[in-house]
Fold this protein.
Amino acid sequence: MNTVELIIKKRIGKSLSKEEIFFLINSFTKRKIPDYQFASLLMAICIKGMDNKETSYLTEAMLHSGKVIDLSAIEGTKIDKHSTGGVGDKTSLILAPIVAAAGINVPMISGRGLGHTGGTLDKLESIPGFRTDLSLKEYKSVLKKCGAVLIGQTKEIAPADKLIYSLRDVTGTVESIPLITGSIMSKKLAEGIDGLVLDVKTGSGAFMKKTKDAISLANSLIKTAKSFNKKVIAFITDMNQPLGNYIGNWFEVYESVKVLRDETRDDLYQLSLSLSGAMIFLGGKASSIKAGIKIAKEQIDSGKAFEKFVEIVSHQGGDTKYLLNPDKYPKSKFIKKIKANKGGYIKSIDNYQIGMAALELGAGRKTMTDKINPKAGIIFNIKIGDKIKKGAIIAEVHSNSTLKIDIAKNMILNSIKYSNRKVIKPKLIKKIII
């Protein structure tokens, strides 16, 4: 096959065949197609799109560029969850132990922070000793022992995705729905799962700013999952404000512990229960999502979910003393309270700026070589619709740099808009697609 002819074929809007897509993906993975040619193909896909069959073929080709994990030797259903990312989104740390405590295996391969969004791996690695770099043998062993495992993408899993993503990141093709679908689903299918719950975010702190785009992405993911005979449910959820109140790696572990210990019942608690309930339903342990939510709640109420989290952390080398006594975790050098410069109802929050403020404090990376400060972050006290007075403490920022704190303070204050009139609180779950 001729690479240039296939690029032209897609550029003029024609569909690529399964054989053509496999040729392109396999050749690029083996470095037989140079970056400049594949970048041209990615741009053609981004502009002209792909139909459902093409997207499924793309996912299959990326999936089979590496190993597909066989978990058939482990008894029980295997269900995972994927979120498209957001600010303060730490639900993976909560639902994995809940669902595992309910008797369903949760094999989870997660990612690192991307831009303004935090990464599950970075959060877990804020627990001293926690290993996210388990081998596939260790991955299976931990899953068999405690029913859940959380690791990063290995060299063996969907290597095409790693190569393609790095190119997408520098060619302006990140937002392409077929390319996003292939990236997400190739990794998830490689885990050896039976079903998947999707949390597709929409709003100022999400990659999909518009709800209609989030629904389009969810439908693409669902159709692709079903083409591989996987059970799937998608949630469209709000990301116009931070989820929960804590942003930053250890901070998000801390808040997850609070939820698992039933010490808080905020929006994070509610969403975690809903996603867990859907996973329990897909895993065959409940007759409906509602019944699954009830089971999920029982795991928290009984203390089993928190016990399972401690067990998972222990099996992956983490120091559990900070889970049992989270207040003993080391603090940043500098802590500053931020006060509201005016009063009224919180009308809107530029959640992207909140995420970037956390990154500025040291909770994320500006470049691939940046080192994360696990103690850095934000405690964000307000929600859209709240009524506050001038001078009220709206946030608390933690960093090892006073300069970074001043920058973050201005970003946070400038991200908030007020109204003199009462503001309706946004709906957390906008749509469920089955």
User: Anything to note?
Assistant: The chain has three domains: 3-49, 79-156+165-324, 330-419. Residues 211-227 form the longest helix (17 residues). DSSP finds 17 helices and 13 strands in the chain. Residues 330-419 form a domain with the Aldehyde Oxidoreductase; domain 3 fold (CATH 3.90.1170.30).
